[in-house]
Amino acid sequence: MFDFLSEYDVLGAFWVTVQLTALSAVGALIWGTILAGMRVSPVPLMRAFGTAYINVMRNTPLTLVILATSLGLNQTLGFTLAGQDFSEQNFRLSVLGFIAYTATFVCESIRSGINTVPVGQAEAARALGLGFTQVLSIVVLPQALRSVIGPLASVLIALTKNTTIASTIGVAEASLLMSEMVENESDNIFLVFAIFALGFVILTLPTGLILGWVSKKAAVKR
Prior knowledge:
Blueprint: H1 10-39, H2 44-58, H3 62-76, H4 86-114, H5 119-127, H6 132-147, H7 149-162, H8 174-184, H9 189-218
Helix pairs in contact: 1-2, 1-4, 1-8, 2-4, 3-4, 4-6, 4-7, 5-6, 7-9, 8-9
């Protein structure tokens, strides 16, 4: 019943999905943290940029964002990320698109965590002579990040499922292979769906369970 699987690199496709998720998650965490700092910054221009970026990007369909990185940045503007071939270039461009989009949700999660930190702690840090950046990085963010591990886990799970959109620009991840198999294996179509559904469950379920456990262990006791 599973003989047809030998003709396809299912594990390789899911490995591409894992790579997309991991690289995009790291980039989104960094960019999202910077955006969160902008949202609470005392500088009006930085607050305005952070607010405008998040409102525009979060309300733009992810498919459009991914297509914009390939058709807009790469093919129209000639922007490249040192990829050696077309598939590698599109892989890197899709990671860029996922970072740009997912960072907005990371930012809002972190900003909600910042709001849980007592204002008195920031005021005490400023009274000691610390600047905004020092207060944010030393006092506020460590507590904020510990309190939003659960929400960030949900963002990571959503990102894992969103990587299927990379297939729109030809990235050879799981959903692109599934589309190919559905076309070629019409007699086993339900089995194909079941295999890929199980694959995504295997990727996302442990993530939620592990990060949920970490969230409880790392929670700030108030």
